[in-house]
Amino acid sequence: MNPVKYVQESSYSLSLSFKEIKNTQINTKSEFVNIMLDLISFNNNRLNEKFTFLDAGCGQGNFIINAIDRYLSNVNQQELGSDLISNNISKYFLGYEYDPDLYAVAKKNIYDLLLIKGHFSNSLSHSITDSIIQRGDFLKYNITNKFDFIIENPPFLRYDNIPKEYVKWIRNNFDCFRGRSDYCIPFIQHSLDLLSEKGKLAIICTNRFSLCDYGRNLRNMIINNFNITNIIDCTSIQPFDKDVSTYPWIYIIDKNIKKYINYVHLIESESYSIDNLLWNKLDSNILLNKPWRFLEKNELLLLKQVEKNNKNKLGDSLYGVDIKVGLATGADGIFINPLKEANIEKEVLTPFILSNKLKNDIFDYEKDVLLNTWDINNTKKLINLNEYLNTSKYLDVHQSELKKRYVAKKNKDNWYRLIDKFDNKILKKEKIIIPSLRSSLCLYFDEGIAYPHHNCYFIIKNNERKPSLKSIGAILSSNTIKKLAEIYAIKFNSNATRLLKASFCELPMPDIEKILDNEKDLESAFINQEFAKINEICNKLFETKFKL
Questions:
Q1: 394 with 343: CB under 8 angstroms?
Q2: Domain 4-292, CATH
Q3: 232 near 35, Cβ under 8 Å?
Q4: Does residue 451 contact residue 370 with C-beta atoms inside 8 Å?
Q5: 434, 441 Cβ separation under 8 angstroms
Q6: Long-range contact list for 155-158, CB < 8 A, 24+ apart?
Q7: Over 391-450, what HEC string results?
């Protein structure tokens, strides 16, 4: 019998709703399931011994089904009796799933496997399945034993999509959850707490905790108490059964003495297996006290030199900037560039900056517009549709589509809202616009005329103190920062890169007094796009000694 203690219902009611996690479960492709099982040594030799196996958040059961299949193949070769095999499966394996539909699918898949490959009766197959698959919130199960094998693909849920009351509960129970952590953080912490002394943990999840500040506590927990044996960077490929942009890495963790890390960055290939992975053997000390980045020798030299001479970061308060993500509409086809025939009132149309239109050096402010349904004088209120009859007619045509959005279901009266709020103060500010997914860092300057789309980052001043935004723009245009941005960025197979907001904040910056001494020259060079002059000034500011 599995040692599971269920948390009381009053506490359980703080969990996520099924709607909130419905689209967060993504199945891992079978070849990566097998790689992960191989890397935790879930193979024939180990399966001859007693063990405990946990699939946390098992979804449709991909991991646990493959694990049981391996076990059945091994014991069938030994011709063990069916009673012993069934008892062992019931004792050795455990899986959790929160979503009732996925839970039902997982049970059906395991039942079919036991019936067909295990040759168990209907009733015994049902009995085994019921004993090993539990339904509920994994974070709220008090599991009294430890596990030799844990494997998981945690639901990816951003901080803003986690209910506030549940966030409070998580903060009180998982000390790795800090700042605007995503849901993977407590999930991984709970799994680490359940690992036996000889246990191995395999995770495929977003790499954000490895790079973002909010992942610092979890990184420290892993570095101080565990050993990372393998990391597979899957950001350039698609290890899941559908196309998602979650920047996945695979982590293999155990409790052995810290030695080295086997690291590989996968590129597009016809097939993947543990036999064709070309590992780079790295000293585990590179993970100490910093985000986990794996760099080439020349990149490491540049980073060390710049960071040695420039201790400040772009996100530090003394530079007076905010780094933000542009506005998400939730229905771009409706809110961006509405049909001219609709005669939308000019008062609700705003020049809009789209990443895919930023191909020249100058904005075309007349080209793209946003239908803004927020009151420009009160960011907490929507416009009154009775005051904008043409807009009202246009939105009514699309009402059924707009009401399908999650943001509309939360408040049915606000069915026509944009996902993000529109801040008129931001609209009127000067901005440095940085489109996402480019081969290198590209900057554009907006004088306070347009609002950026959510696939752009933008930088604004949050006070009137120096240095100016233009001088900061000049520094960010330098070859030094562009090369550092390549180092910090997540790389995709299309040669595109994306710099996370947290990585922008971590970009080294010259001493503020040095910037102020050169501010007029920096501003002039930025306005006139004199990049040779920018690089000449910035090489002195950053004290870089070798050619980039």
A1: no
A2: 3.40.50.150
A3: yes
A4: yes
A5: yes
A6: 155/21, 155/24, 155/25, 155/57, 155/98, 155/183, 155/184, 155/187, 156/24, 156/26, 156/182, 156/183, 156/184, 156/205, 156/206, 156/246, 157/16, 157/20, 157/21, 157/24, 157/182, 157/183, 158/182, 158/183
A7: HHHHHHHCHHHHCCCHHHHHCHHHCCCCCCCCCHHHHCCCEEEEECCECCCCCEEECCCC
Per-domain residue ranges of the chain: 4-292, 295-320+467-548, 322-462
Question: In the structure encoding, which two tokens stand for residue 350, read together?
Answer: 């705003």
DSSP code at position 29: P
Minimal CA–CA distance to 457: which of 472, 443, 477? 443
Residue 187: name the closest of 6, 25, 5 by CA: 25
CA 119 – CA 444 distance, rounded (Å): 65
Query: Across the 548 residues of the chain, what is the mean pLDDT of every consecutive 10-residue run?
Result: 36 46 72 96 85 93 95 77 89 93 95 93 95 92 90 89 91 93 95 95 94 91 94 90 81 88 88 89 83 80 84 92 94 94 95 86 74 92 96 97 90 94 94 86 91 94 91 95 84 65 87 95 94 94 73
- Whole-prediction pTM: 0.73
Bridge-based pairing of strands 312-313 and 321-325 is unpaired
